[in-house]
Amino acid sequence: MSHVLIAYSTVDGQTQLICERIRQILEAADCSVASIRIGRDTVDDLAAFDLVVIGASIRYGKHRPDVLRFIEANRAVLDQRPSAFFSVNVVARKAGKDTPGTNPYVRAFRRKTTWAPAEVAVFAGKIDYPKYGFMDRQVIRLIMWITKGPTDPASCTEFTDWQAVDRFAHRLIALCTAAAGLD
Question: Any bridge partners for residue 176, and if so which?
Answer without folding.
Answer: none
